[in-house]
Amino acid sequence: MQDGYVTVFTGNGKGKTTSALALALQAAGAGLQVCILQFIKKGAYSEIRALSRFSDKITVEQWGLGRFTSEKPEPEDIQASRRGVARAGEIIPSDLYDLVILDEANVAVKLGLIGVQELVSLILSKPDRLQLVITGRYASPKIINIADQVTEFKVRKHYMGKGVPAREGIEF
Fold first, then answer.
1. Helices assigned H by DSSP within 1-115
2. Tens of pLDDT along the chain (172 residues)?
3. Taking each helix axis from N to C terminus, what angle separates 75-91 and 116-124, rounded to the nearest 10 degrees?
4. Among 1, 3, 36, 67, which is most buried by a count of CB atoms within 10 Å?
5. CA-wise closest residue to 33 among 87, 86, 101, 83
6. In angstroms, rounded to a whole number, what is the distance separating the alpha carbons of residues 133 and 126?
7. Paired sense of beta strands 58-62 and 6-11, if any
8. Cα(37)–Cα(40) distance, rounded to whole angstroms?
9. Could you give the domains of the chain?
10. How far is 126 from 40, CA to CA, in rounded Å?
11. What is the rounded distance in angstroms from the CA atom of residue 95 to the CA atom of residue 55?
């Protein structure tokens, strides 16, 4: 790619990570190299198992402990996220990838796992040719301001509101 941009998928609606993963598949299909760094998440979700089939084009690294929380994070959660930021700091300027996805990075900022300035620094370290995607609710105004494209996902209606639990292969 000649020109890469910064895309943010945010908002309370479902589909932010799914949209980023669709971009990853599209990029891999075009022969591009993709790295997905997941903050907060950990585990062999359906999406991770599916992406493993494209391991020659898509690398996935999880830098969370799998504890979704709105409480004060534990020191272990902060340490894991900081290691993820350090890894992103190596990967983004490396020229090894055409597309880098920082999944749930906005949530990591909101929970205090990483600082907004750390995320801003990662964005500013992006080579011109790299496409960078940042997902997660609660995107900071600072991130929105420096992004080239921002899509806000809004819930209008979702069957989970009727008590339907998350289903393997659809929601996870």
1. 16-29, 46-51, 75-91, 105-110
2. 679 999 999 999 999 999 999 999 999 999 999 999 999 888 878 888 999 999 999 999 999 887 766 678 888 999 999 999 999 999 999 999 999 999 999 999 999 999 999 999 999 999 999 999 999 999 999 999 999 999 999 988 888 788 888 887 777 7
3. 10
4. 36
5. 101
6. 11
7. unpaired
8. 10
9. 14-68+82-131+148-154 (3.40.50.300)
10. 22
11. 18
Does an H or E element contain 58, and which? strand 58-62
Residue 100 structure tokens: 């880098």
Which among 86, 99, 107, 94 has a CA at the least distance from the CA of 59?
99
User: How many CA within 13 A on the CB side of residue 136?
Assistant: 23
Query: What residues pair up with 103 in beta bridges, in sequence order?
Result: 38
Measured distance CA(83)–CA(24) in Å, rounded: 23
Note the pTM of the prediction, 2 decimals. Answer: 0.93
Q: Which residue has the tokens 């997902």?
A: 135
> Which token pair is 149?
């494209």
Report the amino acid identity of residue 61.
E
In contact, 63 and 38? CB cutoff 8 Å: yes
d(CA 171, CA 57) in angstroms, rounded, equals 24
